[in-house]
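Q: Convert this sequence to structure tokens.
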Amino acid sequence: RQRLRQLRMHLRLSRMLTLSVLTATWLLASGCGADTVWENETRSPDGRYVAIARTLQNGGFGSASVDTSVSLQQANIPRTGTIVLDFYCDGPVPHPYILDNVANAGGTISLKMKWITPSHLDVTYHGDANIGFQAVRYQGIDISLEEP
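A:
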């Protein structure tokens, strides 16, 4: 009998420990991620490339930020984009932590993309943003950046 009681107690403790670890893992993973709050894409005039803009709002203790990037990818090869522009700022985001292409249009910096030719992408933005990375040419495509 005593052995049976010990076995039951061991099983209860094991279940509680497993549940505690799973709960802690879920809380850590769900509370500090980046949420896409705006995205937009535009295809080159010849249809070979797609420019994709995306704004991520990062939340967490000491790591909150708003990051907007522009990537280029070949239209016939999905999910192969390469970042050619990257901005970061403090925000605010009009509709926080929600993908809202209307309220969050332009990714908090009024970003707009326009293909001038099949080999020239023009990007404009307004607002208080820092440029973290800027490529001026990628795969034969010129990338111009303007802040009017």
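The beta strands are 34-43, 49-58, 65-74, 82-89, 112-117, 120-124, 130-134, 137-138, 141-146.
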